[in-house]
Each structure stands twice: as structure tokens, then as C-alpha cells.
Amino acid sequence: MSDWLEKVHAHADGELDTRDAAEVERLLAEDPRAAAEHQWAVYLRQTLRDKCAAPDCEHAWKAVRERLDAIDAVSGSSRVERFVGRFSWGIATALLVVIVAAGVFNRSSGQQQVSEQQLAGLFSGAPFTQEQDVTGARDAQRLMREQLGADLPPIGPIYQVNHAAAGQIDGNPFMKLDLQDSTGPLALFVFVGVKSIEGFSPVSARNEYQERTVNGLTCITWSQGEVLYMVMAPRSLDEVIAIADGMAR
Amino acid sequence: MRFKTGGPDRERFERMAEDVFPSLYGTALRLTRSPEDASDLSQEALVRAYEAFGRFDGRNFKAWMLRILTNLYINRYRKLQRTGKSASLDEEDAAEPVAPADEAPDRLVFDNLLGAEVEDALAKVPDVFRAAVILSDIEGLSYDEVAEATNVPVGTVRSRLARGRAILRKELESFAREEGYLKYGSNE
Description:
The complex is a heterodimer. By secondary structure, chain A is an alpha+beta fold.
């Protein structure tokens, strides 16, 4: 196609510089074919703009948005993957430190205190999850080892063991044994991982014991390693200390 | 700077893309002449643009989008051509030179043409010329923008436009004669 035709079209599109535009305008004035071509260029451009409407594309736009959603979802997870990949050693080290610190903390402060409310629950029997009748000290010892991994204090033939119940307080296991001696009934609690019981105070001149009266019952506690023992009976403090002395030997 | 997908960038991109999407889809439809292909092509162009949004220079979003779409179309077309499924893209083979007009258009005759009839005539223009005509005449891109979109020099755009319009004119005249809008022998 000749250069003058292309210039005529470019002029119709306003794409010529001043010099070329002036040259084409002279040609349009002199040559009817150039003038006709120019009119065609203008006319076709206008016709295409007027007649070629934007087609309905709602469905396609919807599909585009779904694809963008999919990209966002994938890039979101890959950002996490990239982060984890880049800092994997750091994350693993941090996790290890947290695990070790938690272990050290557990060892140093894992022994807890039984609260007032939890103590009240012991009297109502709320935290017990397992109960069974026991026949003799040997049976009670076996059960305690199974449940707590702890030994029964030496109760000897003085006490008859009637019943055992087990449960947990804040994840720490404990057992209650219902005993009977010649004076009457009493109860022995054995807690693992418990340091003390709220509201108890030291017995004067017997610092190894803590004492408190709850619902008319005298309660004495003492610790051996990670195990806390508590005896309770409707008896005087001296009588209950005597019972504890016998068990804590 | 890398564009972060999702969040405010997604909203900004979506707002801009929604504005130009009819142009994008329309161009894809006129290039491919198939609603399914047009949907695929426009979607693919938008996805690529979304992933490359960080590289958008902030000037003419529509021209940038049309460049991505046209490049995608050309690449796909060339692949089809290599597998022998499509006609040649060679400009010399695509169309014989069309003689310049002897007479100015009879506007009263051609103004009666419907949009669909103009679209049909446009569809008969070979690809390389049709792309230039669509981008310049329908979408209003400058010669420089058409050159960027189609990866050719401005001189080639000028040539393709002149030839594309000449072929379109011939098609419209032929159609007008068949429909009886234009008498045989006139405008020859």
C-alpha cells in the first residue's frame, strides 16, 4: 500500500506531525481519490465506534473474580509456606526453647495448691471419677500404685480399709481411702503433684504438719517427696496428729 | 516492588479491571470470534495482569491490559499456526492490497447497517489487520499504544490500519450490495 494512503489514514486519526499534516492537507485539496479515502477513514472509524457495542460479559467477569479469589487463596498459603520455609530453623529452635522452658517450669512449679473451692469439692465428692470397695490394706496398696504410682503409708492392722475413690484436681491425680479404727471412721487423702492445701496453717512445735478444721473435722497434712497426705477425722487435733505420726513414719 | 495479592491491592486492581473488562472481553471476542475463547483469553489476561500488577506504570491501565491480551492472543495464535490449525499470519499472504476509494462513502446507505452486520464484516478482515483496527478504531488506542500491544513498529501499525480499513470497506460495500442497500456497479 502506498505511503500517501497510509499518511491519509494517519491524518484522519490525528497521528501526523505538523509538517506531514500540512502535506496531506494539500493532497486532499488537490486529489479527489485522497479526499474520498480520507472520508472513508473517518467514516469507518466512527462507524466502528458507534456500531460495535461492548458485548455482555457478566458471566466472564464472574469467572475472573473466582480466579482472582483462587489466586489470593493460594498466594496466602504460599506466603505462609515461604515464611515457614525461610525461617524453619529459627522456628524449630524457638519451639525447642519453649518446650524445654515449659518442662523446667513444670518441674519447678508443677506442684500446685488445692484451693478452698476444690477442698469443698472433696467433701461433696465432686472430683471423684472412679470409686470402688476395697478389701484390706494390700488391695488398697495395689490400687494406689495403679492410680497414683505412689505408696500407701504404713497403716498396719489398726485400720480397716472400706472404700477407695480416685479423681483429679487440675490434672493431678489423688485418691481417698475410707478407713475405720477402734475409735471410728476417718479418711486418708493422697495427692500427687500437690504442694499444699489453701487455708491450712502449721501445727505449733510440729512444723512437718499443717492443720485445719473443716465442717467439724480435724484435718492434718504432711508431705513426702511429691506426695501430699491428708488425714481427716471427727477427733481432736492431738488424736489426729497421733494418727499422722503413725502413718508418716 | 512485588505486588501483594489480596487486600487493598486486590480491591484496587478489581476496581480498575472491572472498568476496562467490557473492552477487554469485546476485543477478545472480536479477535477470537468465539465466546468461549474470548472468555478464556480475557480471563487469562486478567490473571496475568493481576500477578504483574506491581509492574504496572500507573499510566493507561486499559492500554496495558489490551497489550497483555493481544500478546497472549498472538502467542496462542502462533502456536496454533505452528501446529497447522490456523491460517497464515504473514501480512503479504493475508490480503491483497485494496485499491483506494474513488468515491466518498454514502453515509445514508451505510448508516442503515446494524451492529451485527458491521461485526460480521470486521470478522472477515484478516487477523493482523483486524487487531490494529480493533485496538485503534474501537478501543481508541494511539498508534504508539497499538504498536506496543502488537509488538510491531509504528510504521507497521499505520500500514495495517490503512489496509485493514480498506478490506473492511470492501466487505461493507459487498454486504450493502447483497442486501440491496447499494446498487451493483456503483462505487466501483
